[in-house]
Amino acid sequence: MVEKGKGTRLMKGGIGKRATPRPRTYLTIGYDDKDWAKRHGAQWDKERKRWYVLGEVSEMLLPYIDSLMGGQSLKEVPEEERQEARARATAARAKPLLRTPPPDDAQADFFVPGVWDVAAKDNRGIMDVAVFRLSKKYPRANSVMTHNLPDGGHVRVASGPDGMASIWDYDIVLMGVSHLTEAMNRYRAGLGEKPGRSFRPHVSEILKFCRQSDGGRQYEAVEAALRRLKQTTVEIVRRQRGKDGRPLRVTEGAGLINDYKAVSHEDSGRVTSVEIELPKWLYAAVVEAEHPEVLTMHPNYFLMTPGLGRFVYRLARVAAGKGEARWSFRLIHERSGSPDAFKKSSAAIRELIKANELPEYDLAEEPGQDGPILVMRFRGSFPTPSTEKAGP
């Protein structure tokens, strides 16, 4: 249904002159689709209690027009055709990247130290390769994932019987990096002791840090994540030259965490506390390095639901920084370790571009000589929590 709009516009350069009113196109929008429809130009008519668009209708909203198929009203369109139209709209619609924060997300537990208030930090050295799986669909138990490096070396990620650690499990490692960074800030300021490799967070601290709700199943999930992190090992092979000029092959391997201990109530099975020993390589990178290479992560990183979205954000942080970077779809597919075909990975990248909800960065696609290119462009200032001290 298309009608004349009620209002008029003032023409540029002619105060008081009436312009031709833009047509008003009415839509049938369900409650679940209203926020998405508003982002594409839909407005609410309070008098008629109907959704409408002024002027040109976005292609995303075409299947919702009341005059579908040859000017018929929506009621006159057969149900089968209406379902097909809805399916086309759903296929064209970008899936949201961010989940809703838990209800108590903004309020810290009075009895728990505010470890989660420290922005997550990660080691720059491994941010452009996936040392974890990005999909919840494929557990990848007892499997190997290999990333080739430009210097001729490679990164080999191997999993155990409980599956490969996921990018969501890795949030616990991020918490360990943040713990070490904050402890070292206090130590350098003369306000505390030098941290050791072990830290003992309460499970509610872990859930708060990861912006997860505090529920029974989440407690079980933390214990399962610790098992996968313990069983997932990362081996880095690099080629270099010795002092005598002879080529050398240097191999280092370690788990994503070294050891852990979980304490739970026997009657309920709820985990109450854990002790996590971080690996030597991570401890050395944050504590023993003269200039630790750690990057602050945006708080909304933990609300991102697609694993690929999280990986692309990490890639943007290290490659683009506060500027711009370009990576080919093909290289992202390889570095992400995705078991899917390249075509499917490309479709997933385009979904990220369509949604454009990545924290801090805008995404775009441009053609390249060897295939499509993902452009990652910093869009604004990074929000610094008031509780965060300057990093090393």
Instruction: Work out the radius of gyration.
Output: 26 Å
- Mean pLDDT rating: 80
Spans of at least 5 consecutive residues whose pLDDT stays below 50 are 1-18, 68-74, 107-117, 382-392
Helix and strand sequence: EEEEHEEHHEEEHEHHEEEEHEHEHHEE
> Numbering strands along the chain, what is their spatial order in the largest sheet?
1-4-6-5
When the domains are counted, the total is 2
Specify the oligomeric state. single chain
Structural class: alpha+beta
Strand content: 15-25%
Number of strands: 18
Overall, the morphology is globular
CA distance, first residue to last residue: 61 Å
Helicity range of the residues?
25-40%
Instruction: Describe the main β-sheet briefly.
Output: 4 strands, antiparallel
How many helices?
10
Organism: Methylacidimicrobium cyclopophantes
Protein name: DUF5710 domain-containing protein
InterPro entries: DUF5710, Replication_initiator_prot_A
